Amino acid sequence: xxxxxxxxxxxxxxxxxxxxxxxxxxxxxxxxxxxxxxxxxxxxxxxxxxxxxxxxxxxxxxxxxxxxxxxxxxxxxxxxxxxxxxxxxxxxxxxxxxxxxxxxxxxxxxxxxxxxxxxxxxxxxxxxxxxxxxxxxxxxxxxxxxxxxxxxxxxxxxxxxxxxxxxxxx
Length: 170
Description:
By secondary structure, the protein is an alpha+beta fold. It has helices at about 30-40, 45-50, 50-60, 105-120, 135-145, and strands at about 10-15, 20-25, 70-75, 75-85, 90-100, 125-130, 150-155, 160-170.
């Protein structure tokens, strides 16, 4: 049975690979709108033709049970995420994106490590994430962190494309 975790805490500070501090804060609507416009211009969202308004609206929304978080590296906004705790006996990372200039610095790894620590503290059994089949960098990241491909979901986000559901057993 799940125990309360601190996913809902307003701020988490994590060490980043380069000695800086990565903070996980609540994502403001203004930052969600700004990041939505940036992320819509990069893959996989650009390839899918995902509208800026839809991505910005998703990130800036306030949705009970699905906190949006800002990723800040020494106070600079560098990414965003959306988490759904308690999804199939563990949290589901619904969205994770890092600005292109900050990719490859271990920030995604830091978020996944944080997610795993929080889930273990809550006695969860699984971690979940899905990625587009065309997002090979994300798939490599998740698999490096012990996630295994669980299902291929054809035509879920876009006709003619597949999303890959990945699970990490804890």
